[in-house]
Amino acid sequence: MEKDIEEVLFTPAQLDEKITELGHQITKDYQGKDLLMIGVLKGANVFMSDLMRKIETSVKIDFMAVSSYGLSTQSSGVVRIIKDLDYSIEGKDVLVVEDIIDTGLTLHYLYDNLLSRKPSSLKICTLLDKPERRRVDIPVDYKGFDIPDEFIVGYGIDYAEQYRNLPYVAILKREVYEK
Ligand SMILES: O=P(O)(O)OC[C@H]1O[C@H](OP(=O)(O)OP(=O)(O)O)[C@H](O)[C@@H]1O
Ligand code: HPA
Ligand SMILES: [Mg+2]
C-alpha cells in the first residue's frame, strides 16, 4: 500500500490535534441540545469514531450509507442510499459528519433529504474539503482541512474500496488509477 502513496498530507498526530479542536468547538456549541451525529458511510466511519470521543456533551449517533463514486475516481453524480437512518430525526439537532467534500453532490443530495425530515437544526462537519472541485454550494459549519485537487486516500477514505485502513491522509499516486 505504501508504494502507492505520493505524499502524506496529514499524519495521525496532526489529525488528532485537529479533531480535538473540532470536538471542543462542537462540545461548546451543543451544550443543552439534543445532538445527533449522522455519519456518512463508509468513508466517515474512522473520522466519526474519533470525533465522537472528543465531544464532552451528550450525543447520539446514527449512520447513513451512500455511494456515488463506486469503484471510480469520478463521481457518478447519482447518489444511492444503501442504508437509511434507524430513527426519525424530527426535532433533533443533527450534525452530519463527512470525511470529504469534493464536488459536493453527495452532501447536496443528503442535505435536502435530511432537511425534509424536519430536524430542529442541521449542520455539516467535514474533515477534508476540496473547494476547487465544488459543483454545488454546501454550507460547511465545521471543517478540518482544505486539500488540493488530488485524489485522496486513507483514514477511512478509499480508492476502489482499498486504503481505508491507512492511519494518515495521503495523495494517491496517479499511476495507480490512470492505468
Ligand atoms: O462531494 P462528492 O464529490 O460527492 O464526494 C464526497 C463523497 O464521496 C465519498 O463517498 P463514496 O461515494 O466514495 O462512498 P464511500 O464513503 O463508501 O467511499 C466520500 O466519502 C463522500 O461521501
Ligand atoms: O479524493 C477522494 N478520494 C476518495 N474518495 C473521494 N470521494 C470524493 N473525493 C474523493
Ligand atoms: Mg469512496
UniProtKB/TrEMBL annotation:
- Requisite cofactors: Mg(2+)
Tell me which domain of life the UniProt entry assigns to the organism this sequence originates from: Bacteria
One Pfam family in the UniProt entry: Pribosyltran
Q: Name one GO cellular component term.
A: cytosol
Q: Broadest EC class?
A: transferase
EC number(s) given by UniProt: 2.4.2.8
Q: Which residues form the Phosphoribosyltransferase domain?
A: 16-159
From the UniProt record, give the pathway where this protein acts: Purine metabolism; IMP biosynthesis via salvage pathway; IMP from hypoxanthine: step 1/1; Purine metabolism; GMP biosynthesis via salvage pathway; GMP from guanine: step 1/1
In which family does this protein belong, per the annotation? Belongs to the purine/pyrimidine phosphoribosyltransferase family.
This protein is called: Hypoxanthine phosphoribosyltransferase
